């Protein structure tokens, strides 16, 4: 058999064996988690908080950071966004935020702008927080080496670590009563 015939035969065998390989398994089916049963009407203040939080996605994480120039940790991000867009001065740490006087909110009643609290170190001690942006998602500054990002509450990690939510923004009913 000639060299050309052998090369052709080997090429044909390689091509046929590639076609005979196993097909990749289908992607896993992800069941969406429903956090609210009705479409949410967003107040103008909540919309401002939402857009500001989104604008900071990609900002580097820095422990103790509280500005876009220096970077953010989770509580620094929250404090900055609420002060900048809503004129609300919040405590500096997650431990102070979770005990502040504000309305506690059930997971099924979350609204854009609510604060989310997590125990990422296990147990029930708050160690992380984020800003709920709607549709089961939140913006947060996760960890050293990372950046501010959009994440999903439907992830098993966040469901397990979830502690509580608080509403610090005025509701539409409250805004209607203001002079």
UniProtKB/TrEMBL annotation:
Keywords: Hydrolase, Protease, Signal, Thiol protease. It comes from the Bacteria. Residues 1-20 form the signal peptide. The keyword Signal applies. Residues 43-169 form the NlpC/P60 domain. GO terms for molecular function: cysteine-type peptidase activity. InterPro entries: NLP_P60_dom (IPR000064), Papain-like_cys_pep_sf (IPR038765), Peptidase_C40 (IPR051202). One of its GO terms (biological process) is proteolysis. Belongs to the peptidase C40 family. This is NlpC/P60 family protein. It comes from Pseudomonas saxonica.
């Amino acid at each position: 058999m000639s060299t050309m015939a052998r090369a052709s035969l080997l090429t044909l065998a390689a091509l046929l064996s590639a076609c005979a390989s196993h097909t990749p398994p289908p992607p896993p089916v992800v069941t969406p988690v429903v956090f609210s049963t009705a479409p949410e009407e967003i107040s103008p203040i909540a919309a401002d908080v939402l857009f500001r939080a989104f604008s900071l996605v990609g900002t580097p994480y820095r422990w103790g950071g509280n500005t876009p120039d220096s970077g953010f940790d989770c509580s620094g991000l929250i404090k900055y966004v609420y002060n900048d867009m809503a004129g609300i001065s919040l405590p500096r740490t997650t431990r102070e935020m979770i005990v502040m006087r504000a309305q506690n909110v059930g997971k099924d009643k979350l609204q854009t702008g609510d604060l989310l609290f997590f125990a990422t170190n296990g147990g029930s001690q708050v160690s992380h927080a984020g800003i709920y942006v709607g549709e089961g998602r939140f913006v947060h500054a996760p960890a050293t080496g990372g950046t501010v990002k959009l994440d999903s509450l439907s992830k098993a990690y966040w469901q397990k670590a979830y502690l509580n939510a608080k509403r610090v923004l005025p509701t539409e009913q409250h805004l209607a009563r203001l002079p």
